[in-house]
Amino acid sequence: MKKIAIIGCGISGLYFANLLEKSSEYDYTIYEKRSKLDYEDGYGIQLSVNSIKLLNKIGFNNISDHEIFNPRKINFFDAKSAKKICKIDISKFNYDKNYYTILKRSNLIKFLLKNIPEEKIQFNIEVCDIEYLEKIKINLSNKLNEEFDYLVVADGIFSKTKSIILSEEKKVEFNNSVALRGNIKNYEKEDISLYLGKNFHFVIYPVNKNKEFNFISIIRKNLNNREVSDGSLFNDEVFLKSLTNEIYSNTSVQLEGKIENIKSFPIFVSRDLNIPNRKNTYLVGDALYAYPPSFAQGASQSIEASTEVFDEIKNNGSGYYNKRIKKIKLVNWRSKLNHFAFHVSNPIIVFFRNLILKILVKNNKFLEIYLGNIYRN
Ligand SMILES: Cc1cc2nc3c(=O)[nH]c(=O)nc-3n(C[C@H](O)[C@H](O)[C@H](O)COP(=O)(O)OP(=O)(O)OC[C@H]3O[C@@H](n4cnc5c(N)ncnc54)[C@H](O)[C@@H]3O)c2cc1C
Hints:
Layout: E1 2-7, H1 11-21, E2 26-31, E3 44-47, H2 49-56, E4 68-69, E5 73-78, E6 84-89, E7 101-104, H3 105-113, E8 121-122, E9 127-132, E10 136-140, E11 145-148, E12 150-153, H4 160-165, E13 173-185, E14 192-196, E15 200-206, E16 212-220, H5 225-229, H6 237-248, E17 259-269, E18 281-283, H7 285-288, H8 298-315, H9 320-342, H10 347-360, H11 364-375
Parallel strand pairs: 1-2, 1-12, 2-8, 5-14, 12-18
Antiparallel strand pairs: 3-7, 4-7, 5-6, 9-10, 10-11, 13-16, 13-17, 14-15, 15-16
Helix pairs in contact: 1-3, 1-8, 2-8
Bound molecules: flavin-adenine dinucleotide.
């Protein structure tokens, strides 16, 4: 039986473990740095049909109907005036029983954990060193070591395991933007509402059918290295207030007093692709590549990558990284373009951006290329 080490118990590591559970050919262990997973947070995650198709293969279609929401449209608004610019019908990309889906992140993690036996996950453990012998020998922070046939690195954007494997790692960089997250109850609009402002955008969407909504804003911010690495800044009341005020004073949407559990954090993105030249070693999810979050594809791409690694191991293949690089490039330029277009501030450019948006959302050929090529392939 082949032995596989999975580093990180996030979306990509857990999805990969679910694929292994469906096969009797593999033994595996997940090593997770944290002492437990977070089931409490009410923040949302959007999953497009490319990942829903894969999640349905492990039983996601049986998830309780009141825990999810299937949006039909993305409605674009001008944040200042709250006037609608245009809409995209994203339901046109749904097919068979695969629907664009939103849910709480914590419910996605709970679902992914359902089929994983408890003893498969070892908490409070990190990788300290890796030796490539006949097998892959992993030295762990509990002073023990273990040998594996395959190593799947799924420890997220600041992957320490990747740094151990790669001699010349290109680190992630601060994207000059900060995320502000919160929950809203009883928002009046259904579907996904995307508000475009001057140097910021925010999105409000339902996370289930119980009138619970997610608020997420990406705000451009130039911070120096010290500020970015100072974790306390992002929990600081004054800093949080300055971020919320920036939004409240630049939108006529009544948000003040409505957003609960507000949290902020800096956005980091990958600068380059790091491909390890090591046998049977696979990077997946954010450990492989982290995109700007303006295209909501990180989790969906993590699930796709885990599927591809599973297929490669099963079929003894070799094309994982070549295939992934192509998809990363497609997702990355769209994420960057969205990030840029959502934040333009010059009124003339805003006028033309809105005009172009209105034209493009009616152009089926464009939508097929821009969204369909990512959602359907
Ligand atoms: C603001 C924001 C909004 C987003 N919204 C969406 C969205 O709507 N849709 C979408 O598809 N994507 C979204 N994303 C992206 C998505 O969240 C990520 O791409 C996805 O969570 C990556 O999954 P992962 O498993 O690779 O990493 P993670 O989910 O980060 O999991 C990594 C795991 O590894 C563990 N770990 C870390 N270091 C170690 C270590 N050294 N040893 C062992 N374990 C370790 C961590 O504790 C964690 O459990 C968003 C991202 C941001 C920043």
